[in-house]
Amino acid sequence: MMANLFSSFDPSTNWNTSINWLSTLIGILIIPTSFWLIPSRLNMLWMKITSSLHKEFKTLIGPKIKGATLMFISLFSLILFNNFLGLFPYIFTSTSHMSLTLSLALPLWLSFMLFGWINNTIHMFAHLVPQGTPPVLMPFMVCIETISNIIRPGTLAIRLSANMIAGHLLMTLLGNTGNLMSIYMINLLLITQILLLVLESAVAIIQSYVFAVLSTLYSSEVN
């Protein structure tokens, strides 16, 4: 039962190769639509979303770093495409694996830390002790802030993976009980599955947004 339950998260195929990871790049197929002479409604909606994100990220980062919003909007797009595509049948959800989410979070965090400690050392030391902290509590605050900084890539990766896994597992569990139900209960199950699908669509958007915004906030702390 458990093997069947987690089989939807298995990246391997019938040839014992991890070809399912290629589904991470399916979102690239959507890019050519932005170059159409007459933009579609979906394209206009996407341009409005990216424009809003650009303004928000630019406010968070500040004017010191030029072009950084492009990186974080690209990160948001990659995660959003993979989260959404994972809701379709027979498409592998790569963002449910720590190997992908940690590969996104760890290099970002490491680059922020290296940049901050090399170029703004005094500023980074000042972040370890919040303003107004009593002298007695300063050693403890340094330890707490250091630990919170170290676990940031882990929390980013685990938050995204756990949310993707939880929704998929719930839908799989409910779907596996369909053959044991009466015709009336199946109708109720279908309504429940549709509502769960809507909820998962919202989670897909929210989690990609949270990942991008937190990455932006972490980058703003090292400026």
UniProtKB/TrEMBL annotation:
Per the record, the domain of life is Eukaryota
Answer whether the UniProt record assigns the keyword Transport to this protein.
yes
- One Pfam family for this entry, by name? ATP-synt_A
For this UniProt record, the keywords arranged alphabetically read as follows:
ATP synthesis, CF(0), Hydrogen ion transport, Ion transport, Membrane, Mitochondrion, Mitochondrion inner membrane, Transmembrane, Transmembrane helix, Transport
Q: Report membrane topology.
A: Multi-pass membrane protein
Q: Where are the transmembrane segments?
A: 20-38, 68-92, 98-118
SUPFAM superfamilies named among the record's database cross-references: F1F0 ATP synthase subunit A (SSF81336)
Q: Where in the cell is it found?
A: Mitochondrion inner membrane
- GO terms of molecular function: proton-transporting ATP synthase activity, rotational mechanism
Q: How does it assemble?
A: F-type ATPases have 2 components, CF(1) - the catalytic core - and CF(0) - the membrane proton channel. CF(1) has five subunits: alpha(3), beta(3), gamma(1), delta(1), epsilon(1). CF(0) has three main subunits: a, b and c.
Q: Which family does it belong to?
A: Belongs to the ATPase A chain family.
This protein is called ATP synthase subunit a
Tell me what gene encodes this: ATP6
